[in-house]
């Protein structure tokens, strides 16, 4: 990569709160206010079936593309995203059974350019990205040629058992 190449970071946003659409708007606004970070593209909203813990409302999900200044690293962006989640009311349950339970807001760092990071706190690409239609479908809306571990996102999505009905994702 050339020293002047623009990094593109992709963040998955989700909420299944009563005001999920407003929460996603607030999360996008919070990201766009971070210094040296430009919100470049926003996918449509998708209504998605809960995974893991299924006894909860459906989620609204989308992916945003960010153009971070050169001082941003995956770890610093993730830390800023976690602070934003907390500010917006995200409470992480200590109960492992509720790891995928209801949430006011969820912000996942999916990709940070072509970087790979095995840091246990900040894994990039996101470790479950290639298993999640609710992340891959909106990612492909804004980045149709993006690659994950050298393989196109479209190829990863084609491997999944999912169904798209308009803006509803069943998986």
CATH topology: Alpha-Beta Plaits
**Mean of the pLDDT scores?**
92
Q: What's the total helix number?
A: 4
SSE pattern, N- to C-terminal: EHEEEHEEEHEEHEE
Number of domains: 1
Low-confidence stretches: none
For the record, the CATH architecture stands as 2-Layer Sandwich
Distance between the termini: 36 Å
Assigned CATH superfamily:
7,8-Dihydro-6-hydroxymethylpterin-pyrophosphokinase HPPK
User: Helical amount among residues, as a percent range?
Assistant: 25-40%
Number of strands: 11
What class, by secondary structure content?
alpha+beta
Categorize the overall geometry. Answer: globular
Main features:
27% strand, Alpha-Beta Plaits, two-stranded antiparallel sheet, 4 helices, seven-stranded mixed sheet, 171 residues, 25% helix
Compact summary:
The chain has 171 residues and is α+β, with helices and mostly antiparallel strands.
Give an account of the 3D structure:
The chain has 171 residues and is α+β, with helices and mostly antiparallel strands. The protein has one domain (9-170): 7,8-Dihydro-6-hydroxymethylpterin-pyrophosphokinase HPPK (Alpha-Beta Plaits). It has helices at residues 20-32, 74-87, 133-142, 153-158, and strands at 9-15, 37-42, 46-48, 59-68, 106-112, 117-118, 123-124, 147-148, 151-152, 163-165, 168-170. Strands 1, 2, 3, 4, 5, 10 and 11 form a seven-stranded mixed sheet that branches. The N and C termini lie far apart (36 Å). This is 2-amino-4-hydroxy-6-hydroxymethyldihydropteridine pyrophosphokinase. InterPro entries: Hppk, Hppk_sf.
């Amino acid at each position: 990569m050339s020293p002047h190449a623009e990094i593109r970071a992709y963040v998955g946003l989700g909420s299944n709160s009563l005001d999920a659409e407003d929460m996603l708007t607030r999360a996008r606004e919070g990201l766009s206010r971070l210094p040296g970070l430009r919100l470049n593209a926003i996918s449509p909203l998708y209504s998605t079936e809960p995974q893991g813990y299924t006894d909860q409302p459906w989620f609204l999900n989308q992916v945003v593309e960010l153009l971070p200044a050169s001082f941003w690293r995956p770890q610093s962006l993730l830390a800023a995203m976690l602070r934003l989640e907390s500010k917006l009311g995200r409470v992480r349950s200590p109960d492992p059974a509720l790891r995928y339970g209801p949430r006011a807001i969820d912000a996942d760092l999916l990709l940070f350019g072509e970087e790979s990071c095995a840091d246990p706190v900040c894994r990039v690409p996101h470790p479950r990205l290639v298993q999640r239609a609710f992340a891959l479908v909106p990612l492909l809306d804004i980045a149709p040629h993006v690659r994950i571990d050298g393989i196109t996102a479209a190829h990863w999505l084609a491997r999944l058992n999912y169904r798209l009905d308009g803006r509803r994702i069943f998986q």
